[in-house]
Write a structure and sequence with these properties.
The protein has a seven-stranded mixed β-sheet with strand order 6-5-14-15-16-13-17. Strands 8-2-1-12-19-18 form a six-stranded mixed β-sheet. Strands 3-7-4 form a three-stranded antiparallel β-sheet. Strand 9 and strand 10 (about 140-145) form a beta hairpin. The chain has 16 helices and 19 strands. Helices cover about 40% and strands about 25% of the residues.
Length: about 425
Amino acid sequence: MEHAPLLISGGGLVGLSAALLYANRFDAVHLLEKREDPEYQFSREARSLQLVISARGWRTLRKIGLGQQIQDNSIALRGRTRHSDGETFFEPYSANGDTISCVSRNTLHRLLTESVLKHEKISIHYNQQVSEVFFERKALNSFRNDKKTHWRYSFLIGADGVRSRVAQALNGNGEWTRNLEKNHYREIAITHAPWIRDTFHYWHSTHAMIGAFPVHEGGFSVFLVHRNEHMEKLLNDSDSSWFESLFPGFLGDVPDARSLFAEAVGGFLGSIDCRHWHHEEHTVLVGDAAHAMLPFMGQGLNTGLEDIFDLDIQLKEGGAIAGGDLHSYIASRQSQAKAIREISEQQFRYLTGKFTARDYALKHLLDDFVAKENMPSTYMACAFSLEPFSSIWEREKQISASFSESQIEHQIQVDRLTAH
């Protein structure tokens, strides 16, 4: 049987993984990547240097045969350590002692690229920028150094990230939107810091947040989230007192942090909301092209890897769709993406100190309830299970809605007493 060609727009982590997962169903797989070469250049865009892999991601990575190799290059994290006024407070990720894994984006990209380059059916075409997509003809154009190439495909996967040309072509009537937070994100690598290496560390205030991931190869990757209007005072002002008041003790640990952050490439945090994720039975979006989200649950990559795992169930040889219908797959993935996007937005508010007294009271009531009932917390269920994000989020909302106003007010008073 002659297989039809698969075309993947985007040679990032999800695109590379998709090529490996689906290669044996096609005569040829072509990845079109806008970067100029296989080396991942962090300086070109503000993206997290470290990535979290949890249950959903591991399931896919093991299926493509790279689970152990990636595990060997990752570091296990037990939970979060919050730094406040010179003290530290540890919050485990799991009541059962489960850990998540942290791996360098560059390492993961290298391992996936090496595996793809060894595969006889997969070709990566660098410096290829998709320009036009002709869905009815199953074709697209790309440019390399002003030279146009015309491609035909039987199946097209749009894995080309937050500026996806495929997503824009599918949602050409304003149905593709980027929802930007009014916060800047920038990240630096440091070689030494006096912090324990098996937790994520964070410092937060209502104006800015710092987070630090240990790096398997050594040192820490440290990111700063700050409001745009605070940039000058926070990082460029000769007086560092405001920075020190927001993050007591941090400059003692990393004396040159302000200058390093000021020099780092900055980018806005945000999410993607696409109405249309596919065209008929031969084009589909996956990963950030379909559902970019705030990174504070660590589920962006994992959700993209779950996209392609679930799509694998639908794909047959040559790119035919089981049952001849992508609608059920798309409906399911859109539901999951919407839920984890909302969960991530809530986690963003929590980690950046934007919770109100009522928010904290509800969180404490919820935490106590699930512990007493021996239920997984929202974070545990997202990170350590394969339960649909939509059912996890619905359960949290239902439990939170069950608390009476008197319970919430009582918890607010308890929190105030505890704080003092």
